[in-house]
Structure formats: C-alpha cells, structure tokens
Amino acid sequence: MPTAAINGLCTILNEDMGTSGDLMNHYRAHARAIVRKYHLDRHRAATEFFRLAVEIGMELYSAQLLRDAAKNVR
Predict the structure, then answer these.
(1) What is the DSSP annotation of 11-53?
(2) Fewer CB within 10 A of the terminal residue: the chain, N end or C end?
C-alpha cells in the first residue's frame, strides 16, 4: 500500500470532513483515486484498504464500503 494511501486516510480521519456520510464519501473517493493513480491491482488494494480501515478503527460496515470502493474501480 502506498504511503499516500495511508496518509490520505489518516488526514481525512483527523480533519473529520463533515457528517459520517460525507466522511465515507471522502474515504471512498480517496481509495478509488489511489487505485487509479498507482495502477494497483484492485482486488489486492481492496484487501489492503479493508485491513487499513480496521486498523484505524472504522466499523466493519464502513471498512467493507471502503474495500468495495477500491475493488470496483474501472
């Protein structure tokens, strides 16, 4: 996982960008952008984003949404 992915998620978390729905939208957009920018394998990236989300304390459902955002990049 690129350092930019980890730093970006932490920045979004620390800046608390809006309501929980807004925050999840920022997380998901970040995950998609990272997969595209670094040309990551989307399935592997999805797994790594899920692990990272759990490590930073996201609820399971939110971690799954983040995983799905990375996995569904086209």
Answers:
(1) HHHHHT-SSHHHHHHHHHHHHHHHHHHTT--HHHHHHHHHHHH
(2) C
CA atoms within 13 A on the CB side of 49: 32
Q: pTM for the full model?
A: 0.86
CA 65, 69, 22, 51 torsion: positive or negative? positive
**Whole-Å CA distances, 67 to 1, 42, 45, 71:** 13, 9, 8, 6
Residue 18's pLDDT band, with cuts at 50, 70 and 90, is low
The H or E element spanning position 10 is: helix 3-15
